[in-house]
Amino acid sequence: MTAAGVRLAAAEVRAAAERIRGPVRRTPLLSADGLLGPSGPSGLLLKAEHLQRGGSFKARGAANAMLGRAARAVVAGSSGNHGIAVAALARRTGAEATVVMAAGAGRAKADAIRALGARVLAVEGGVAARDLLARQLAAGTGALLVPSSDDEHVVAGQGTVALEILEDEPDLDVLFVPVGGGGLLAGSCLAADLAGRPLRIIGVEPRQTRRYAVSVAAGRPVELPASRTVADGLRGQRPGEVIFPIVQRRVDELIAVDDEEVLAAMELLNRAGVPAEPSGSVALAGALQYGVRGRTAVVVSGGNSPNALAAMRAAGSATAPLVPSPAAFSRPSSLSVLPSPSTLSKESL
């Protein structure tokens, strides 16, 4: 049953999985027992969203929000990865795309968005100012607004990450999720309702931007000042209105990691052959701090990794792959694909 104030349910995640089949890849679940050395804990799994189109899970929410909704123009506010996903899908559908980016956003990501044919607008201030301008542009021009997180379609699309994890590993005990805008966390909370056993959902925030932890403790959404962190994709200031009640109802724990812990996790991933960026390494940093207890999965992504951006710039036509393809990365020797149970579908999204 859906809690009061929560408009979404797990069924929306299943519907999203069908809707985005094709433009979005089903990514593998990797066994990473050797990632921390021979004496490291067993049972560690990586959801390899660095192999997703555009290098991050953001393609899922953008696809679910845009597919089936005829729009000649779209507007999005983004730190980079969501903008890349929106620009790539707009190119696929023939829509004009405008992406608003806040001060401090990575130049490489802005270049990748432009390379896909989208217009990039920069705004002074933080994420709140960015999202305000995106809303104003959409309202003034009639374009479709595709929020980076706080949207029912986006949340349901991001939830397909956890849905795939549960299909590949039904005995999962703990799932660590990086927390920026909160769409992936809320979607994971919804998907967890489909688990046939107890499953702990742990959100991991940069210590400088603990808006969900602060807000859950306060019992209401709290807006924090703009901040800086090495995980530049996770700098949101206020919990989403769609997202907050879902997280408040279902998340088991919200923990914080320092920039040094994020960079250490990123180094581990890159040594293992996973071209992760800081934002895509936060969940692993949280798992290393918290401890691997039973079958534990973390969501990792690449986003602005050099390989992903180079492939994005090389994609010169609408028929070219929406980067990166799995072949762009060599499979690390310390990681192996976890086979899906034979009773589950192996079809790719």
From TrEMBL:
Coiled coil start-end: none
SUPFAM superfamilies in alphabetical order: Tryptophan synthase beta subunit-like PLP-dependent enzymes
Alphabetic keyword roster: Magnesium, Pyridoxal phosphate
One family name in Pfam for this protein: PALP
Keyword Ubl conjugation on entry: no
Keyword Electron transport: no
Stretches the record annotates as Disordered: 326-349
Ranges annotated as biased composition (Low complexity): 330-349
Record domain Tryptophan synthase beta chain-like PALP: where: 21-297
Cofactor(s) annotated in UniProt: Mn(2+); pyridoxal 5'-phosphate; Ca(2+); Mg(2+)
Protein's name in the database: Threonine/serine dehydratase
Biological classification of the source: Bacteria, Bacillati, Actinomycetota, Actinomycetes, Kitasatosporales
